[in-house]
Amino acid sequence: YREGIVVNTVEEGSHLDVVVCRLDDEILIFLFETSENTLLKMAFVSGIALGKGTWAGNRVGSQSSNPRSARSSNVVRMGTLIRKPIAEELKEKYSATDIGGKVLAEYIWLGGKVADMSTGKPICRDATDIRSKTKVLAKAPESVSDLPEWNYDGSSTEQAVGNDSEVMLKPVAIYKDPFRKGDNILVLCEGYTPQGEPLISNTRSKAAEIMEKIKDQVPWFGIEQEYTLLDLDGRPFGWPKDSEPGPQGPYYCGAGAAISFGREISDAHMNACLYAGLNVSGTNAEVMMSQWEYQVGPCVGIEAGDQMWVSRYIMQRLSEEFGIVVTFDPKPMPGDWNGAGCHTNFSTKAMREEGGFDVIKEAMEKMGERHQLHIEAYGEGNERRLTGKHETANISDFKWGVADRGASIRIPRSTEAENKGYLEDRRPGSNMDPYVVTSLIVETCCLI
Predict the structure, then answer these.
(1) How far, CA to CA in Å, does 58 sit from each of 43, 49, 54, 441?
(2) What span, in angstroms and rounded, lies between the C-alpha atoms of 306 and 300?
(3) What contacts 83, CB < 8 A, 6 or more positions away?
(4) 78-87, 119-128, 310-319: which has the minimum mean pLDDT?
């Protein structure tokens, strides 16, 4: 069996021998099927398969093939993706092509897994479900209003049914394209029905309405996005394939060939976001090896969610070029390893003015009363991360404290000292929907 699917069968009455050995840095598994001491099939697995008949739907080599030679022409990779890097000179050759003054607009939208509404509430099942396609424009737009609406097949993104699949794309924000550069742009869009109604998975629409209600309070957000880098086989980037690296301690903000894995991606992402016009304020290596963080903000109102989603899109695009997978799983590795969060810093004008600490304390009372509601909206699988260990509060409890990284909400020491400032909600998981989280914080702190 492979992922619950039968990929090969054993003849009734035959015998199956399993031999496990190590070759270089791989664990190899050989399967021998015999009947009355006659070899019927041999399969060589652990990413490579050969033998008689079919294996996982692929024609493989003969039973007499040498397993070591299977690494060449008749290799069948099972489970592990293979991605060959594209030659840089080819990319440069075609990116420099004269396109006759046209502008390439990459329309970006969120797929159905970002806001699964099957439970009646938006649940972000996959924070990497960010879709895009290119529209050729005759000239560069001067504003969002100059951009045409577009459409896509919603049945392929779990946002419509096949017999009524058209979903409309409404542009809401423009950013410079860090990949194509020049006059080319990234266009963030919302999804609407042909009748002009927001999709039920369109969490931006509701968030924008809430932000509009309190725009006079000038809500600021700073979001700390943690993420983990993986090899194509799903193993954390740089980790030993048959064991774990040394314990946590040296990796946070660390440097060195045996300490830091992924700095090139982190730096490239920061530069690409800054080129695009996003207000990225910093980046750093995190506590678990191959885990990183970047910060977006301060941003006002709905811009926080917009910039966060575009930054995630840029990260996904960069992962294509580096051949590294980016995951926003809140607890990608079990055991004594930190999870990945998306700490959300928040303040209003009143919180930032003299005496604002009292306003923050009032907000803490409201946050405590609605703790469970926030937890439900703060990311799928977050219970694996919020255990009371690894710089988290237990998911069932609410507490806030000054300079307490084991609290649900941390108040910076500077806020207490200056009697004004901001709060840090440490509960959101790294896979949270920033539209849902920022609007819920505003709703709890300012509208109730």
Answers:
(1) 12, 9, 6, 51
(2) 10
(3) 232, 323
(4) 78-87
